[in-house]
Design a protein that fits this description.
By secondary structure, the chain is α/β, with parallel strands linked by helices. The protein has 2 domains: about 60 residues; about 180 residues, 3-Layer(aba) Sandwich (Rossmann fold), CATH 3.40.50.150. The protein contains 9 helices and 7 strands, in the order H-H-H-E-H-E-H-E-E-H-E-H-H-E-H-E. The chain has a 7-stranded mixed sheet, sandwiched between helices.
Length: about 260
């Protein structure tokens, strides 16, 4: 049995953008370069509109394809694996303790944390929505079995309102999840996750924490420290830490940040 952690960029997304590019290219040739329309203002306008749209979606389609190849677990770069393992290094769970991974997807980070903490257990939750239809509980369980990891469990859950009491877990983690949740206040999502963390527990939360999505994360980290959290840091993972500056710019506009600390 081999692992299948899928790809953070769905293949369907790649195919969809290439299909849109092909459609606009076809419209450009039909209405702009043939005799379907007589020469005139309308034909000229359609010529330039469809050409512009074809060029735009050509660039976007090849950008999405590049993302797909960069994140692939089976490719040369394997950025997904590098990010998951780097986040897991910040997760220390006491023997007999329990951790929560929010938005576990295919189980990659859940399993990585469990492997680093074999005497603890890790719970992975996800809503496994239609946007990522190939991700599901059974896939997570197969990956855990393929990795030879038994100290994990998976269940359905929602990051907006976690079905756990306050101070349940010794560690909480998340990776590339919250920016996908359609809410205005993503700092509130972070607080909802941290609500379930025990006193003394650690957290490692990675996402595209741009100002547009998250607001001022340094101010948020300062507010956590004022409320009693310790060693809180917002780590910029560009500059070669997880990825190069160029990759960070092309992947997520340089917004990759890792929020770590202890309650």
């Amino acid at each position: 049995m081999v692992t299948d952690y899928k790809n953070w960029v769905p293949k369907g997304m790649v195919l969809s953008f290439f299909a849109i590019f092909a459609a606009f290219l076809l419209l450009f040739f039909v209405f702009g370069c043939t005799t379907v329309l007589k020469a005139g203002t309308v034909k000229t306008v359609l010529f330039w509109v469809f050409l512009a749209l074809a060029l735009v979606f050509c660039v976007v389609a090849f950008w999405i394809l590049w993302l797909y190849r960069v994140f692939s677990y089976k490719g040369k770069r394997q950025l997904s694996r590098q990010v998951v393992e780097a986040v897991a290094k910040y997760v220390s769970i006491p023997d007999g303790g329990i951790a929560l991974d929010v938005g576990c997807g295919s189980g990659a980070l859940t399993i990585a944390c469990a492997k680093r903490n074999p005497k603890a257990s890790v719970v992975g939750i996800d809503r496994w929505g239609k946007e990522y239809a190939s991700y599901n509980k059974a896939l997570c369980e197969r990956n855990a079995q393929a990795e030879g990891v038994s100290n994990v469990s998976f269940r359905q859950g929602n990051a907006v309102k976690l079905d756990f009491a306050d101070e349940t877990f010794d560690a909480v983690t998340s990776n590339y999840v919250y920016h996908n949740v359609p809410v205005k206040d993503r700092q509130a999502l972070l607080l909802e996750t941290l609500r379930t963390l025990k006193k003394g527990g650690v957290f490692a939360l990675h996402d595209i924490m741009t100002v547009q999505r998250y607001g001022d994360m340094e101010a948020f980290a300062a507010s956590l420290r004022r409320s009693g959290y310790h060693d809180v840091r917002v780590i910029n993972i560009t500059g070669g830490i997880f990825k190069s500056d160029l990759e960070a710019t092309l992947l997520d506009l340089g917004g990759s940040r890792l929020l770590v600390g202890r309650k």
